[in-house]
Every structure is written in C-alpha cells, then in structure tokens.
C-alpha cells in the first residue's frame, strides 16, 4: 500500500520523532510511505478559533497534496488533525469552496486515518512487533475519542506490545485541558483540568504517559516536568516503533 504521511504542525516543529516513528513503523509493516513536500497546516486551529473562511487555501492545498490517486491512504499521528480532515474540511468546502474543492475534499476524506485506526481497521494489525519494557498509562485524546471514536484501538495496540506494563489511567476520558487556544483564553480552567490529569497520571506510577496527539502530550508533559513527577510523555507511534533490535531508549524524566 502507498501511504501519504501527514506530519501535522506540532509534529513538524516540536515532535518530529513521532512523525519519524510513524514512517518507520508503516515501512516496517511493508508499506511504501511517501511525504508530499508541499503539505502545510490542515487549518484546524483556524476553524476551532472561529475563522472558517481563512483556512480555505489550506484545505485546498491539503486536497491537492494528498488527492493523488497513487496514494492509497493518508495517515497521521494525530486524532485532532484526522478529525479536522474528515469533518471540518467538508464543512469549509461546502460553505466557502467551489465544486473542485468539494470533490477534492471528499476524495481525501475517504482515505484519511489516524494512526491507530489505520493499523487496526485497515491493516487488521494489533501486534506490530513492538517491544517496550516500561510501565505505561494511556490518555485518550478528546478528538480521537469523541470525533473519530477510535475507542479501544490504541489500547489494543498497546496490550500487544512485548514486555509492556500497561496500567489503566483513572478518569481517562477527562480532557487534559489543552484545547488549543482554550488553554490561552481560559488559562485558569485549563490549568485546573491539567492538575486533575496529572494527579491521575501520578496514581498509576507509570514511567510513561502516552497518547495519540502531540498537543495533549505537550500540555501534559509540560505540567509533569514542572512538578518533577518522574513521568514523561511519549507518542503512541514511538512506543509502537520500538523493537527488541531497535528499542526506544527512555530518558529519565526530571524528579
């Protein structure tokens, strides 16, 4: 299968290892991974902030970059960006686009997946040959949980990882408090939600808190580092990419 990899803004600027791990993992499973060089932001942050007309050029570019018929699937290590492409792009195209944009958006929407749902639903794979001998807890991000409804797919993948000690996160489905500009505009509320999330992470005794969205990991990880909890954050793709022959070296978190 020829897979178009979408890096996402946070992946490109702050979490490149999550993007690299996605590419390595998919290639290890026998697929041809391509990276359209003209890709840019999906436009999610504009839409979420109320600017629906402004991202039209971004939506058009996304459809053009990934609409090539030779690309069988578009995969990204982000539930929020996958949710934007599958839901918001159609709304923008219908309201502000032309016939060509609507057609392009529909084509790309039909073949766009968040990483865990692509592995489980499309490739029918839960055991991807991963090895990660550490205690891990999983935070299900809001967009993946509520918009994409990936459900147990990330957990099914984690449970199949060799030597992992997977522990349940209390109140796992509670938002971490990031929400993009929500964390800036409603800082006090965001911080209170983050404190609840960090407290629940601490009860697990996990060395790693993982998730499928770098934005949540940035928020949670920032908080955990400031309180020197000893728990670090790591993208799901990085855990799934780790093998016995090429294990992920877990750096000790600040204490």
From TrEMBL:
It holds the Pfam family CCG. InterPro entries: Cys_rich_dom (IPR004017). Residues 4-85, 136-220 form the Cysteine-rich domain. This is (Fe-S)-binding protein.
